[in-house]
Amino acid sequence: MITVDVLLGSQWGDEGKGKIIHTIADDYDVVARFQGGPNAGHTIYVNDKKIILHHLPSGIVASTRYNLIGAGMVVDPITLKREIISLTELVDSVKERLLISLRAALIMPTHILLDKASERSKGKSSIGSTQRGIAPSYMDRTGRNALRMIDIHQKDFEDRYKRLKEKHLKLLKVYEAEDLISHLEDMEPQWFESIEFLRSFQFVNDPYLWESLRDVSVLAEGAQGTMLDIQWGTYPYVTSSSTITGSVAIGLGIPPSKIRKVIGVAKAYTTRVGNGPFPTEMPEEISEKLRQRGGEYGSTTGRPRRCGWLDLVALKYATMLNGVDELIITKADVLTDFEPLKVAVEYDLEGKRIREVVPYLDRVKPIYQELKPWQQVSLDDENFMSFIATIEDYLSIPVTMVSYGPHRDQILSVKSMGTMAS
Ligand code: GDP
Ligand code: IMO
Ligand code: MG
After folding, report:
1. Cα–Cα distance, 30 to 67 (Å, whole number)
2. pLDDT at residue 310 is higher than 90
3. Residues 77, 224: one domain?
4. What is the average per-residue pLDDT within 189-207?
5. Residues lining ligand 1, CB < 6 A?
6. Which of 38, 256, 382, 403 fits as disulfide partner to 249, beta carbons 3.0 to 4.6 Å?
């Protein structure tokens, strides 16, 4: 029997998913990424050494038996090779524990250039993408043109690569981005070298992997966050994959009925990197204070993250969409002694009070409830426990753990205090 638990981001990404997976991964036989690609940056500390994973499931740093790069992903071979090599020095048996889906799609160097060209052409209304080639590679997949891992083993691989590259070069001309083409001189040799490197890894036909492993427990590792979902996020300021629970079955080739539990991860506040609506965004002065305290700079791009208050309206939407059974709150330490302390409980939509995430989120203004700051992330701190109870009451789901630092053991088990208390 296969049982799947899902852990995913409930906000705009960077909720601390990597850290939490590192903490719980030993309970699972497999950790599997089901969507996204190197736009993700999941940070994990191993003995004070900071590791940022872009493709590799976070179980690779724990002792999880297998780690799967699932069919729903898009993979940049250059970044993946780099990740594997840097990890090999720190972690045992990376190659033996890594499985790659034959159906995962490849990000080509021209996808990266197209991402840059598209962003440039949008000017002020750019998405603020990570420029890792995510949108162009997913476009090729839905357009039925993509190269997949299976193709690297075929004789006509280079011909197919060339044909698709030619198409991309034409598109770059449409974007008037011929100046970017010279980057291929550096990128292409590295790309083919990385493909060679990957060829000897273990590739899988996912549904049969689950069949062969029999009694297996899987942790599906989400990337990005619910509000960046291609369909349900703040479109068009989203990523190009589906980031929610519904995507797990499609991305891993497992029946939806095998999903046992959904764990949501949310920061005690909110961050967003890139452009797009962000109702609870703080004025820059407060945002900067939080950015410094929380080290809020992008793990993939180094960009400063936009900071805001916890948005319970958006979080409720995320728990509904994903069927979140339990919530883990991260970075509670960052808000210690933070005054004033606010959470959004409603939106004002042109004079009307609503509790809904609408498809035009730029038109809402948050309505806040003010809370008392805590002095310690502790079960004994009344104000802290009242913050947790406020979240539980609002969402009607339990908060089971609170993270108070980037390291694996900086985690607190929480007994429900709000409506969830039994
Ligand atoms: P992910 O993409 O969801 O895995 O999150 P990132 O790794 O991009 O960003 C989370 C950042 O917060 C990383 O730098 C983590 O090391 C750090 N972090 C995670 N949990 C905590 C926490 O509870 N407290 C503090 N101070 N930092 C944390
Ligand atoms: P993890 O897994 C935060 C954002 C980008 C941009 C938008 C589209 O670390 O939480 P893309 O490159 O996907 O086309 O960019 O999505 N974005 C993320 N923001 N965390 C991430 O991943 C992100 N991956 C993409 O900043 O706004
Ligand atoms: Mg991240």
Report:
1. 5
2. yes
3. yes
4. 98
5. 9, 13-19, 41-43, 294-295, 299, 330-331, 333-334, 403-406
6. 256
Would the pLDDT of 261 be above 70?
Answer: yes
Number of domains in the chain: 3
Query: Distance between CA atoms of 166 and 35, rounded to whole angstroms?
Result: 27
Nearest CA to ligand 1 atom 26: 405
> Which DSSP helix (H) or strand (E) runs through 219?
strand 216-221
Sheet holding 216-221, edge to edge: 202-204, 98-101, 66-69, 30-33, 216-221, 2-9, 259-267, 326-330, 399-403, 411-413
Average pLDDT over residues 320-341: 97
CATH of the domain at 368: 3.90.170.10
301 and 378 both lie in a single domain: yes
CA 68 → CA 57, 78, 205, distances in Å? 7, 18, 11
- From 223, 241, 263, the end of a domain falls on 263
How confident is the model over 57-113, as pLDDT tens digits? Answer: 999 999 999 999 999 999 999 999 999 999 998 998 999 999 999 999 999 999 999
- Catalytically annotated residues: 14, 42
Domain boundary among 215, 245, 263: 263
Task: Summarize pLDDT for 359-404 with one digit per residue, the tens.
Answer: 999 999 999 999 999 999 999 999 999 999 999 999 999 999 999 9
- Residue nearest to ligand 1 atom 12, measured at CA: 16
CATH number, domain containing residue 95: 3.40.440.10
Residues 249 and 293 in one domain: no
Contacts 24+ apart (CB under 8 A), 281-289: 281/306, 281/307, 281/308, 282/307, 282/308, 282/309
Q: Which domain holds residue 35?
A: 2-103+203-263
Q: Do residue 171 and residue 79 come from a single domain?
A: no
* Coil/strand/helix, residue 158: helix
Same domain, 270 and 313: yes
Question: Percent of the chain at pLDDT above 70?
Answer: 98
| Interval between CA 102 and ligand 1 midpoint (Å) | 31
Å from CA of 43 to ligand 1 middle: 6
Cα(324)–Cα(23) distance, integer angstroms: 19
- pLDDT tens digits, one per residue of 267-305: 999 999 999 999 999 999 999 999 999 999 988 889 999
Instruction: Say yes or no: 248 and 278 in one domain.
Output: no
Same domain, residue pair 132 and 178? yes
pLDDT digits (tens, 9 = 90+) for 207-219: 999 999 989 999 9
